[in-house]
Description:
Aminopeptidase, 2 domains, 10 helices, 43% helix
Amino acid sequence: MEDxxxxxxxxxxxxIDFVFLDEPSSPIPEPPExxxxxxxxxxxxxxxxxxxxxxxxxxxxxxxxxFAAMSGYTRSDLEANKYISSLELKSSPxxxxxxxLGVDGKxxxxxxxxxxxxxxxxxxxxxxxxxxxxxxSWVEIPSKGKKAKLNSACSSGGPQLVVDxxxxxxxxxxxxxxxxxxxxxxxxxxxxxxxxVEVTEKEAKFINSTTRQKVESGENVTLNGEEALVxxxxxxxxxxxxxxxxxxxxxxxxxxxxxxxxxxxxIETMNNVxxxxxxxxxxxxxxxxxxxxxxxxxxxxxxxxxxxxDEHMKVGTKNGQWVEIVDIDAAREYLRDYIYTNKIxxxxx
Length: 349
C-alpha cells in the first residue's frame, strides 16, 4: 500500500507513471459514514421552500388578477399620441411613468383636473419621484392648435388629452394614467388609518374653520380623509405652488402609511377604491404593479418636485386670465433630467 501512495504523489508532482507492484491484499476502506456529505435532506428542504414560494406566488397572482378583473373599475384605453412621434419622447425601460389625475367631480367625467401628479418609479436609482404640473401653466393644447391653461385639457378631452398635452409640451413618455375623484381620495386615507404630515398654525386654523374639526398644528399631525382633502386644496393662504407641495406631501405620506399597514387593510382599501377609479391599465398590468410594490418599490426613497420651477416661468395674463408663462424648452430639459437621471438637487417650495 505504501508503494501505491508514493507513486500517486509522484504522478501529481512529476507526472511519472506508476504501476502496481502487488495487488492489494484487501480493498481500500470506505471513508467513515460520518464523513460523507449529507445533501439529500438539505436539497429536500430547499425544494420544499421553493415549492411553497411558487404556490404562494401563483395563488396571490391569481387573487390579485381576479380581484382587479372583478372589482368594477372603469377602464379607458390610451391611444398613441398622434400629435408627437414616440421617437421624440424621452423614455427608459427602467422608469415607469403613471399620471395621477385628481378631478373635482366623478372620475368618469371630463372635469377640469384639480391636480396632475406624475408618479415616476425609477428602478435605476431606486426612487419614487413625484412631479406636480402647475394647472395654470400656459401650454399648447395640441388638439386645439392654440395655447390654454394645462388643466383645461381634461375638460376638453379627458385623460387622453391631458396625457397628449403633457407629452407634447414636456417630451416625456407617459405609460399609464389613473383618474380619481375626491370621494376616493378620502376613502383611501380613512382605510389606511389617516396620514401624518406637518401642519402649520395657519393650516390647522383653515382646516378647522372648513371642517369644524379640532386639528392641532405640529410636525406629526394625523389627518383623516376629510381633513387631508381640505389640507390638499388650501390655496388662499399662500399660492398654488404651496398647494401642489401639500398634495405631494400627502401622497408621500400615503406611500409611507401603506408600508405599515397589514394585508387585510390593503385589501379593504382596494375593495373601497377600485370601483371609484378610471385607468387604462388592464387586470394583468394592475397585477404587475401590485407585485412591483410587493417586491420592494414601496421601500424606495421618495422625492418631490414641480414643473415649471420658478426659473422657468413668469406670471402674467393671457386672455384676461392669470397664468404661468412657461419657458417650455428649459422646463422640458429639467423634467427629463429629474425623471431619468440623479442629477437634479431638489429644493422644495
